[in-house]
Amino acid sequence: MQSRAWIDEQGGIVISDNCCAAAGLKPGDKLIVEVVGEGELRLRTPKQAIKEAQRIVARYSSGRDLVAELIAERREEAKRE
């Protein structure tokens, strides 16, 4: 989907209703704005950003329980102290 947006007098970005609806955004939602190229921005909710981070970590964890590994490492360190 493609639509036009504009920057209002207060510096806010105004996005069309149909684009917001397609992206699942509602008035008042908080967004993370990331510059991804010259004149290009990526807008996502914090929840979407967290899900993406989890997908990235899952690719490299190979089903391992990283939290359990970290706790075990810390316990071993504590025993040595």
Explained architecture:
By secondary structure, the protein is α+β, with helices and mostly antiparallel strands. It folds into two domains: 1-29, no CATH class; 31-81, no CATH class. The protein has three helices and four strands. Strands 1-2 form a two-stranded antiparallel ribbon.
Strand content: 15-25%
Strand order of the largest sheet: 1-2
> How can the largest sheet be summarized?
2 strands, antiparallel
> Roughly what percent helix?
40-55%
Write down the overall geometry.
Answer: elongated
- Total helices: the number is 3
Distance between the termini: 58 Å
Could you spell the SSE succession in H and E letters? Answer: EEHEEHH
Whole-number count of domains: 2
Radius of gyration: 20 Å
Topology record:
Layout: E1 5-7, E2 13-15, H1 17-23, E3 32-37, E4 40-44, H2 46-61, H3 66-80
Antiparallel strand pairs: 1-2, 3-4
Summarize the structure.
With 81 residues, this protein is of the alpha+beta class.
Which features would summarize this protein structure in a list?
two-stranded antiparallel ribbon, 3 helices, 47% helix
